[in-house]
């Protein structure tokens, strides 16, 4: 629970009542969750409206747990004891875009908050059942990162075997998910990292080329590898520190798909690069239930193996946020209950 914005110490363990599931909702006894940049920004009070939530609030996007109770009107396919994860993207369901079935463009959507708790209530429409074989840590690391990467590459950029996908920060939660999705689609993958440890960790995902994004010749290496063409899809989630090079290494007629700005959201854009190369820039935010149901098949089959950096008990949430901000952990930080 946080009652005010600030340093990791504002995260406090508190006893709160177990919530009741309403109509169409599931009460989930949580097994695990993961820490996302979004949680850190909300905790700090990021000024962008996308990160505004009313306080006090329980943070946490990724729900992974066991159904304890179903509210009225829930599909009987959801049974007590089923393990579930949930899409954190919650459209309003009432506006003109929602009525047209365009849920992903709902201007009034919210992102789920509340997984840093022993119990969570989620809309049953957002849940999918997990195979018993999926490790809990993999499931907890999955929703935010993999639904986002899936919509960016499959839903928006229509990735396929003819593509070369450039993935910034390939050992981040989103970056490692993108490598797995792009490889599944049969694309060639070039991935970047910035420290010796991260560069060697990247090898476990077997991208076709690994580049160091702190080296001045990074763009040149990408252009050499692609015989001067560049990447047909650039997977952006870094923003300020990477945007100019994203334009430079994107192929003529290529696509930049972006869903994040971890290094800062104000970029200087040489617009001539964009129109001369006839680049498409696509924004993407989380993903649809189709993105979740399509991607979760590959989690259930064991193909997706989210990169886990560290696992801590929920009680150590303050330490988990400190580690997230320090940036030294490679892979997702998982909280177990
Ligand atoms: Zn709506």
List the helices and strands and how they pair.
Layout: E1 25-34, H1 37-44, E2 64-70, E3 83-86, E4 89-90, H2 96-99, E5 110-111, E6 119-123, E7 127-129, H3 136-156, E8 164-167, H4 173-184, E9 188-193, H5 196-202, E10 209-212, H6 218-225, E11 231-236, H7 243-249, E12 250-258, H8 271-276, E13 280-283, H9 289-300, E14 308-313, H10 317-326, E15 332-336
Parallel strand pairs: 8-9, 8-11, 9-10, 11-12, 12-13, 14-15
Antiparallel strand pairs: 1-2, 1-6, 1-15, 2-3, 3-7, 4-5
Helix pairs in contact: 3-4, 3-9
Structure, briefly:
The chain has 337 residues and is α/β, with parallel strands linked by helices. It folds into two domains: 8-129 and 307-336, Quinone Oxidoreductase, Chain A, domain 1 (Alpha-Beta Complex), CATH 3.90.180.10; 146-283, NAD(P)-binding Rossmann-like Domain (Rossmann fold), CATH 3.40.50.720. It is built from ten helices and 15 strands.
Overview of the structural elements:
The protein has helices at 37-44, 96-99, 136-156, 173-184, 196-202, 218-225, 243-249, 271-276, 289-300, 317-326; strands at residues 25-34, 64-70, 83-86, 89-90, 110-111, 119-123, 127-129, 164-167, 188-193, 209-212, 231-236, 250-258, 280-283, 308-313, 332-336. It is 28% helix and 23% strand. The longest helix is centred in the middle third of the chain and has 21 residues, at 136-156. It folds into 2 domains: 8-129 and 307-336, Quinone Oxidoreductase, Chain A, domain 1, CATH 3.90.180; 146-283, Rossmann fold. By secondary structure, it is α/β, with parallel strands linked by helices. Strands 1, 2, 3, 6, 7, 14 and 15 form a 7-stranded mixed beta sheet that branches. A 6-stranded parallel beta sheet has the order 10-9-8-11-12-13, sandwiched between helices. Helix 4 links the parallel strand 8 and strand 9 (188-193). Bound molecules: zinc ion. Zinc ion binds at residues 91-92, 94-95, 97-98, 106, 108. Zinc ion binds next to helix 2.
